């Protein structure tokens, strides 16, 4: 064991910083190894001169010399970086005792640095956490390589996920390991987003399956309903057979509604805005809502009998109401009351044609939301539901999009334990809705309709309806064949989803050859096919299953619009 006092040289070399002593003339009289390494030269015996930029330099008198201390960075700046980063950072010695922790690490484990420095994990952390961390530390030191791992830290009822990087502390000169360090970044939000994305992808796959089945089913319904209508026209009203056929037609309509609701849940229902009775939309959903919400939810529906009409897409209004109802159901796991009210109201809109509006209120007695949570309720992928897959955060964002597309407004009020109330205001229209009886469908004037449909039964049905109404009909099964017969057509009626060339692709190529050609798209499921230009009066969309009058009205409307455009050009 050494005896006596340590020498000045030994103390100089033991200092953690780079140090140089200069005399009054500025000549370096001594320097430790760290200073020589930092400067890249031995400064002793020569003027110290200008020091490299970027060094933190402090000077203090030391007898007849001036002591110059060199650091690569201001230690205060390093401490500021450590304490202000959101990542939890620690350093330990080879035995596992903490040498340094930052504020984020203190917050993560709920202990101040004074209770951590100099102690082992097992003294300050739960045993299962301490054992796992010690195993990881030993792995790093034995391999002398950093490792990356994902960890979960639980405090009370909250579990957060961290991406941790642990690395060995190796002395550059001796190559010895003097400890282990770690940086843990909170990735809880990213993990939740990934879970929601996976859920959204799963729902997308279900939607594609539902949409494909509904496409074929809509074709069958169109055939059943329209051929039944043909038979009904040939029967006396008071005959028993006429009553039987009426039941077939009514059943096909109910099946059509079920198909539309299937597409509603898959968010693949195609359609366009129409003037309709919101009261009838709500009443048509009431039975489905009762079955979906369950017996422990008391559904109360109060709709004004004189409710004004609105202009919107029916399937989107149904989706809006279903999404709000499902959100309320999730907020009432033990049951409760869900109330849906619809009344006439006033909405001040300087750009609107009228101040008349319809107000829909959906209120529940569920858990409610805190003010800061409610402020984000309409943001995409924001959800208050668990990460287990029960919520993807698209419900209220979708509702917001539907309401704004209909030129309406939406407000949300909620308090913890007091439930949630969503108020939607939609502009009302004065025109009679399509739910009221309409005049008989217009007939053709000898024009030629090119019908493109890959389903044989639907193609024959469509042709029969048009021919009986006074049109000449060319029926083909594909877009390629349709292009060969295009010159003879006055209007194109095409299915959207077809093998090979889609209806949209056919319409684009057809209009390149015949600009301004009227087009009627017909489909119950458009898949991912974009329908552009449906605001054009010579372009229409007809949802399957359709009846003959609907088809004839759309064909006549596009033909008349094309003729009017030609007259004014």
Automatic annotation (TrEMBL):
Q: Where is the Response regulatory domain?
A: 448-559
InterPro entries the UniProt entry points to: CheY-like_superfamily (IPR011006), HATPase_C_sf (IPR036890), HATPase_dom (IPR003594), His_kinase_dom (IPR005467), HisK_dim/P_dom (IPR003661), HisK_dim/P_sf (IPR036097), PAS (IPR000014), PAS-like_dom_sf (IPR035965)
Query: Where does the record place the Histidine kinase domain?
Result: 212-430
Q: Which PROSITE patterns match?
A: HIS_KIN, PAS, RESPONSE_REGULATORY
One Pfam match, by short name?
HisKA
Q: Which reaction does it catalyse?
A: ATP + protein L-histidine = ADP + protein N-phospho-L-histidine
Which leading EC class covers this enzyme?
Answer: transferase
Q: Which residues carry this modification: 4-aspartylphosphate?
A: 495
- Which segments constitute the PAS domain? 4-40, 74-128
Q: What CDD domains has UniProt attached to this entry?
A: PAS (cd00130)
Q: What is its EC number?
A: 2.7.13.3
Q: List the subcellular locations.
A: Cell membrane
For whether the record's keyword set contains Phosphoprotein, the answer is yes
Domain of life per record: Bacteria
Which key words are in the record?
A: ATP-binding, Kinase, Nucleotide-binding, Phosphoprotein, Transferase, Two-component regulatory system
Q: Report the main location listed first in the record.
A: membrane
Supply the NCBIfam families for this chain.
Answer: sensory_box
- Protein name in UniProt: histidine kinase
What organism is listed for this UniProt entry?
A: Solirubrobacter deserti
